[in-house]
Amino acid sequence: MELTAYGRASGFCIDPIEKKPLFHFYPASPVLSFGTAGCNLTCKFCQNWHISKSRDMSTLGEAASPQQIANSALKSGCSSVAFTYNDPVIFLEYAADTAQACHELGLYAVAVSAGYIQPEPRDYFFQYIDAANIDLKGFTERFYHKLCGGHLAPVLETLQYLKQQTKVWFEITTLLIPGENDSPTELEKLCGWIMDELGPDVPLHFSAYHPDFHLAIPRTPSETLTQARNIAIETGLHYVYTGNVHDRRGGSSWCPGCGRCIIERDWFHLESWQLDQGCCRHCKTPIAGHFANKPGQWNGRRRPCILSDHD
């Protein structure tokens, strides 16, 4: 059966990898991002609703084969291609074929997904993925049922699967919505589950919500993100970030060994780089993730590529 979205995209953009967000997968490397249309969840707060909720075929305006996308990424100096804007499980075959085309050129494949997928297609999809950011939208069944039209358990199963059965580098994002999924009790449970089931080295991003689509709750205060980050750190998680707000401390990476700043960020701009061969330059503690010797570098599957030689 021919898929309606196969070979047709809703737009392309070159981003820093940090916008996915992925902070521990070749920082400052450029990624070619694209999506299609549609989603398998019905989140009332969707921030990309004009794409993910679209039923208008004109949304899929740009024709591009997997090989064309990979070639464009290579010519643009990108290290990877990201399937994003809407969930790539909706265009699984298109994404998988594009990932394979990327691998043939030494590029990485990145997925931004809600992780809401059955085991059989999950096995097929993630065998081609190098890095992923998974949206853990909340930590109660009530939240998923009320605001997302789905269930919590399949997402937790995907996270466990990625940790236990794959080599995919993955990070987690939770969009904090005031009064819905931001209580200290829920955040303690969420962070405790990550600590117990996935370990302390999986990066966790807390992002600020803003009113959109069918939800008109006021935007998330920055204090809520700081509180969430503190809860996660107190739980024992090593790499916890805040997003969608200007927070240099919450957006920077800190060594779990000596506590010093190892990657300082101002929004998505890298201000300082204190890594040496993937270790803290000060105390030599290994930092979880995939790092090149300098920001803006990456290690391709078949060839090293260098965009910048600044420190």
Explain this structure.
The chain is α/β, with parallel strands linked by helices and 311 residues long. Helices cover 28% and strands 22% of the residues. It contains nine helices and 17 strands. The protein has an eight-stranded mixed beta sheet. Helix 2 crosses helix 3. The longest helix has 14 residues. The radius of gyration is 19 Å and the shape is globular.
For the largest sheet, list the strands in their spatial order: 2-3-5-6-7-8-9-10
How large a portion of the residues is in β-strands, by DSSP E?
15-25%
Straight-line distance between termini? 50 Å
Largest sheet: 8 strands, mixed
Structural class: alpha/beta
What general outline do the C-alpha atoms trace?
globular
* Radius of gyration from CA coordinates: 19 Å
Which keywords apply here?
311 residues; alpha/beta; 3-stranded antiparallel beta sheet
Short description:
This protein is α/β, with parallel strands linked by helices and 311 residues long. 28% of the residues lie in helices and 22% in strands.
List the helices and strands and how they pair.
Layout: E1 8-9, E2 12-16, E3 30-34, H1 49-52, E4 62-63, H2 66-75, E5 80-83, H3 92-104, E6 108-113, H4 119-126, E7 131-135, H5 141-148, H6 153-165, E8 169-176, H7 184-197, E9 204-208, H8 222-235, E10 240-243, H9 248-251, E11 253-254, E12 261-266, E13 269-273, E14 275-276, E15 279-280, E16 297-299, E17 304-306
Parallel strand pairs: 3-5, 5-6, 6-7, 7-8, 8-9, 9-10
Antiparallel strand pairs: 1-4, 2-3, 11-12, 12-13, 14-15, 16-17
